[in-house]
Amino acid sequence: MGRKPRARQASLWVEAQRLQGLAHPFYEKLNQILEEAGFDRLAERLCAKYYDPRLGRPSLPPGVYFRCFLIGYFEGLDSERAIAYRVADSLSLRQFLGLSWEDNPPDHSTLSKTRRLFSLGTHRAVFRWVLKLLARKGLLRGRTLGVDATTLEANAAMKSIVRRDTGQSYDEHVARLMASEERPQPTAAQRRRGDRRRQKAVSNREWVNPHGLQARITMKDGRTHLAYKAEQAVDLETGAVVAVTVQEADRGDTESLRQTLGEAGCALTELAGESASEPLGGGGDVSLRAVERVVADKGYHSRASLRELAEMGVRTVVAEPERGRQGWRGQRAEQQAVYANRRRLRSPSGRAWLRKRGELLERTSAHLYNSGGMRRLHLRGRRNIAKRLLLQAAAFNLSLILRCLLGVGTARGAADRLQAALFYFWWLWIAQTTGAWQPADSPQRACGLNHPSATRLRTRCRHGCLSTGC
Fold this sequence. Notes:
single chain; Nucleotidyltransferase, domain 5; 4 domains; 16 helices; disordered C terminus
């Protein structure tokens, strides 16, 4: 039996081959896909304009920077500090980044400075490069898009809000109101009691957080907090994220839809007619027309939005809320668009598209924000959040390719599948050794009684069969 030594003298020389860890099969396959597509060359070409060709020391390679945020999605890490800690702690992730033993892993401050250095357009170019890779793999169609939005909790507290006109904090505002009621210099306890009794109304027109000027006050799950609105457009034929935008949380769905569909239309126009040279999962080319159909929930239903989409030649399948009888005087185009949308909703194909929207969009939101670690933000500023979210969506699209090749889309999913396989073989060994399961042609199964399912463990009777009713 080996025993842990009380003290051990460190070796002066260690072979580098002995320190080389075993590569993770998931990240090894992902690295193979990126290297075959020339990802590092593309990243270096996009980011060369940010650095001087001769002055300064070598920076963090752009390919390593983007890979770090891919790790953030696959590992479910919500902050750059957590990504830096995870990379420094894992040998397989160091191999995925291409770091040798002489190279230090990137620090969280390096990731933050590099993110601020690279523009939003550079991150969007990387996202669209991944879309082009999906098109070559036959995992992008672009004919039917589903749109949905969610709120992301901002890195700002309600306690820090101030009034837009005077700059007073909330506590100072309550004290001023109480002073106007002939109660000068109230204590902190008196201010809290007085604030509980009065009718409160906190509006985005009057209040703002100085540390998150673009965050908006919103309510979700019975809680009031500062948040942003993230909206994504998903290809309902393949599940790929075509566009993702970050907007103000108090912006209506019908208003934010224009920006999201505009981003999706630009991305699909660049890839129109792209052929699937390396098809996976059935293959298919990108539609020559940018967007043919839009599917959304009832929050996106309005006369103006349906009319605009109909004028662009886009068919809508948008759930209609209960509004009763409506008047259409002077709104002939809006009436035709609403009635056409209503006919599609009642058709079998329209109901099928709504079911598909509920399946793919809910799954995409769960992967991007819940398991991907983006539900709670650690960044400030809409542009910084949009940069991180674009790389998050790019990682999700890469996981679609890995699902076709490996059957799993994350490293944790690969570990869960291995654990399930080991459990199955363990159960099979237990069942065979205890005699609770026998093949159908075994002598013990020759009894004419009704035997239970092979997945249910039963004891043998005196005749040797598996039934307990002999």
